[in-house]
Predict the structure.
Amino acid sequence: MTKYAFFLGCIMPLRYPGIESSTRQVLESLGVELEDMKGASCCPAPGVMRSFDQMYWMSVGARNLAIAERMGMDILTICNGCFDTLFEVAHKLNHDPELRKKVNKILKDATGMEYNGTVNVRHFVELIYKDIGVEAVRAKAKGGKNLKAAVHYGCHFLKPSNIKKIDDAERPHVFDDIVEAAGMTSVPYKDKGTCCGAGGGVRARTPDVALKMTKENLDNMKAAGAEVIVDCCPFCHLQYDVGQMQLKEYHTPVLHLSQLLGLAFGMDKEKLGLEVHQTKVNL
């Protein structure tokens, strides 16, 4: 089995533990083993921390990378924000020895650790598409409900596209291809690449603005006939799940891709954590 250091982030273990459980089960069934990163912290959040202090943001990110480096593994994350921070910090430090020297000075003084620039950061969706393949997903799918799915990529999965090079950020397909391989139909909808509403601290600072953005997305998804929303980020997941409850006019089930694959692979629903969703999931 291929092994990765599993970066949990903040939202998943605190609010949606079923995403963690389903990720572990799905990847194990596809030949990937996840190992816990003991002592890992917040990534830290790219939309907030990076805006205030670049060196602080890079130093905390570097500490997480150093933990994975000590484990001798690359990192796997299921969160777009965590992916963005860890990927970009790794990219900068792996390609700039002078910057790495400055960050390591901060890291050594604070923790006694250092990062040597050897870790790659992978996203759950990108790993499945590039390394495992959609045909492996199709082969394991047991013919669940063929529903119309609104696939939400989120802000940080594909961009900055010039260094991540996962897909065409304006016309992406990799996430849709996996969802369709799992037995659902991905429907196009207006402004598909728009933020869920929560990113960049908007949900915390101006929740009314966040909900307006979420409502517009939900209206576009509804107009396209979507019967389920599929995301690849626990923060987007929270915004669509809790946001619908707060808006009190939408009832579209929300699934993280790991949960969708768990259902498609015939896994025990009780281990997917669907019961903790604010918007009822009855699939």
Observations:
- The beta strands are 2-7, 32-36, 75-77, 121-123, 148-152, 185-186, 228-231, 254-256.
- The chain has 14 helices and eight strands.
- The chain has two domains: 2-123, 139-276.
